[in-house]
Amino acid sequence: MSEKELSKQSNREDKLKIESDLPIRTVGIETARERKNFTHLPPQNYVHVWWARRPTPATRLAVLASVLPDDVTDEELLRWMCFDPSNKKPEHSIAEHVRQKNQTVDDRKGAVYEHYGYRKIWTQTPNNEVIKEIHNRSSDAWGGSLPTILDATAGGGSIPFESVRYGFPTKANELNPVASVILQAVLNYPRTNDDLSDDILNWGKEINNIVRENIGEYFPKQDGKQTLETLWSHTVVCPDCGLRIPLSPNWWIDKESGSKGVAARPIVDEVADEVEFEIVELPDDVTKSEYDPTEGTVSYGKAECPRCSVVLEQDEVRGQAQEGEMDYKLYGIHYENERTGDVGYMAPTDEEIEAFEKARSKVQNSPELSTLLNEPVPDMHKKYDTRRYGIREWRDMYSPRQLLAHNSYLQAFEEVKPQIYDTYEDEVAEGILTFLAIAADKAVDYNCRFSIWDSSVPKLGHLFGRHDFAFAWSFAESNLLAEGKGYEWVLGNVIQAYDDLHDLSGRSEAPVEVMQGDASSLDIDEESVEAVVLDPPYYDNVMYAELSDIFYVWLKRYLGDVLPGFFETELTNKEDEAVAKPHKFDSVASDEKSKAELAKDDYEQKMTNIFEEMHRVLSDDGIFTLMFTHKKTEAWDTLTKALIEAGFTVKATHPVSTENPHSLHQAGKNAAESTILLASEKREKNPEEYTLWDNVKQETQQVATKKVKQLDEQEVEFTKVDMILASFGPTLRVFTENYPVVDDEGNEVEPQQALDEARVAVRDYLIENYLNDGVQGVDSRTEWYILAWLVFEAQRFPYDEGRRLAIGVGEELSELKRTHRLWRKRSGDILLRPHDDRVQDVNKDKEDRSSRKPINPDAVSFATALDKVHGAMHIYDAKGATETWNWMSERNCGSDPSFRATVEALLRVLPHSHDDWIILRDLAAGETGDLLDLDLDKDIFEENTDDVDYQENLNNF
Asked: With the C-alpha atoms ordered 10, 14, 17, 18, is the resulting torsion angle positive or negative?
């Protein structure tokens, strides 16, 4: 009997692990550990640029929990995930060990892995004995055969790679051909015969030698100094004095501090129309007071002429670029001394400038080069649109010499391609050629007009430091021919990734199928897949197709005949891509429906189509696990609605923290994420019977409260954010089991209403269990402020979650900002205002006080309890305890239950390091405390060890 026939007969009866509780905190700790060092990530992260790759711990959890029965214990699951600490005490579980080690990691002696007792789990592949154990338990649960795992939007391959490492039959699909190439490189070629590292290296060397022979004259060596990178600024012409202005926000090259380091110093000729440069070292050659390298010539798109000080507006700068008048100016050279190996910087040389101009002439006069990459850059999202700066064709992404170099590597690749096919079997040859093409793509990533020079390291930065085409006023050109650098570096980087992939997955015999096509129309038989584990596109987070075209146009030339079928279109498929693109609807938007709403509808329909296809290919007893990470609530709601409409019942949600909220690179940024594992099963699609919302509403509240209570009573480190997210699972289960749901008037109820009920239920639970009883009686604006501190445990959190919280207490978020000034925006997030941001200065004359601050400390009555408390805090801080006693007595604060309840609540929720908490602590003590006569628990004043400015947020997923 075939495996497929066995699969269809499985009739799985066992509940799966993904449907019960999971060790999410332990996995979250390991995820933060993996992400902490961005130079030591899993090898698929380094193969080729791709966006939003999920971390191994969360991915491995999703894969294993989706195919193992729920009688697998957390201890077994963690051990199989390669949590195998050598120093665990016998009386501790793995989860307890990991949490304890995480709490004491800063006090360790020795390496981090020695402290934990195991190396990062991404470096560990289970041995054959463990694999056999996992396969036995899994096949027993699925009727005697191993389940097939499908990732239909596989991207960079994190999910299928873990499936392959654990030996499960695996299918991986991608619409985008660039990602499909990555999938081949990650899943298939490292498991082809023997280790191909030496083969890739030798053929790469052959390519490099050919290129050096062909274009070495365009990259001169000077006095024993080998150029590593040349540093260029774009230029425009001053319309007043005619000076060609080099554009750069600053002139630092190697910045050690604000007043120390190496910089390029512009020398403005009062007669000629060019700026020259010298290299200076601060403070030895010149002090910062004499020359400040931070004073560049361009800021916010406007340029200033260093000779006549005329400011060119953004439209003028862009206009010159669009007219082809923007040029290049060399301002520094990063070199290596060939004899000593020392590196340094020198001023532009005539030899380097002449070589560049010679390359420009060759590109302009060669029929082949003058038409290379002349495909037009398509319409893009506004923040990606390179045409604003005259980049209309893909060739314009490069300076002339960069274009010459990249084309020379392509020609050398074509020269060795027949030899590679003659030397190896076809599949091996394809693997070698693919990794060589990926090396060329990595060279593009680090050698184009968007590749910046990072003076703070210093080093060459790559194209996609952010998820967009951010135009670089100044850029770095890599000398790909440099000995031991350039192409040799990118080749070595790719080979290292291949080597690691081979080491981690080379022993796996799992059958793998890589497909390239639309996830809503797969070439897969009905009900032939047991587990779908999907990391879907995230609403408007990344425009994958638009960004990847810069690689596609090269890969098409490299691999069009190696991987036929992948590169049949001029550019990547943007029409079928499931992302929200408001700019796509510029011409059809109206007052009735904005382009943002149209984009949302389009995204929702595409996701519904994909999920319907998952419904078709999934066996009747199969499981569909979504990994979802997005900070916008509407993305979550849209995805959930698409899932329900496609015919699935939600069974569980599991929030896995995927960033360390204490890490410095996340502090103060809305970048921390949680990966949500959402498990669902097939249900009867579009039943004819409707369920009344009133019959569902109460049950959604009950199951949400039950879930949060269950988590709260467990002796693990669940944050309140985890509790809310985990409550979504049972809430959506109730909703989907009763779908479709309508209100009393027959209007369909959206899933977001069920999620809102979950939020309200959890809010009420948290108030009852973490705050004083009096909070229930305060006004809704004060309640929102207190709950924000309680739930998010941070001063800063995502805007959309603040809006949801406001809805939960019956307030309008914009009013809380505009009228009451409870918060302000920072980079799209909410930043809660402390008292001194809201109260006018009592020490100033009334006419000199800020009218923007809503609280008048001289007032007798106040709009909210929080206003009154903030007023008292200001008086205490500005006038002292005696004046505060008088102030509070006049306003009957001691007999005002809302005032007293707000003081106590803020003492409970504010971090102890916050200035407001310190003032409130002092206010609640001494003579002012006697007036209030608060009955405070001593634990309110105990040291808070979790003080951070920015902590994991509710909807960063």
From this structure: positive
Strand partners, 675: 656
Q: Tell me 348's DSSP state.
A: -
CA 297 to chain centroid, in Å, comes to 32
Domain limits, the chain? 3-83+118-194+502-686, 216-397, 818-941
Instruction: Give the separation between CA 901 and CA 778, rounded to whole angstroms.
Output: 8
**372-380 long-range contacts, CB within 8 A, separation 24+:** 372/403, 372/407, 373/397, 373/403, 373/553, 375/553, 375/570, 375/571, 377/549, 378/546, 378/549, 378/571, 378/574, 379/583, 380/469, 380/543, 380/546, 380/583
How long a stretch of residues is the chain?
A: 957
CATH architecture assignment, domain 3-83+118-194+502-686: 3-Layer(aba) Sandwich (3.40)
* Residue % of the chain over a pLDDT of 70: 92
Cβ distance 170 to 68 under 8 Å?
no
What pTM was estimated for this model as a whole?
Answer: 0.84
Whole-angstrom Cα distance, residue 650 to residue 526? Answer: 21
pLDDT band at 764 (very low <50, low <70, confident <90, very high): confident
| pLDDT at residue 945 greater than cutoff 60 | no
The answer, yes or no, to whether residue 806 has pLDDT greater than 50, is yes
CA torsion sign, 721 to 722 to 728 to 731? negative
Over range 160-166, report the average pLDDT: 97
d(CA 482, CA 459): 15
| Cα angle 3, 4, 8; round to 5 | 115
Q: Long-range contacts of range 11-14, CB-CB < 8 Å, 24 or more positions apart?
A: 11/143, 11/621, 12/141, 12/142, 12/143, 12/530, 12/621, 14/69, 14/70, 14/71, 14/140, 14/141
Sequence-ordered strand ranges (E) for 120-259: 149-151, 170-174, 225-237, 244-247, 252-257
CA distances from 310 to 23, 237, 319, 325 (A): 62, 11, 16, 18
3-class SS at 273?
Answer: coil
Kindly state the average pLDDT of the residues 916-927. Answer: 90
- d(CA 565, CA 391) in angstroms, rounded, equals 29
Among 558, 565, 547, smallest CA distance to 378 is for 547
What pLDDT, in 10s, does the model give residues 420-432?
A: 999 999 999 999 9
pLDDT at residue 400 greater than cutoff 80: yes
Q: Which residue, among 67, 62, 70, 55, has the nearest Cα to 19 in the 3D structure?
A: 70
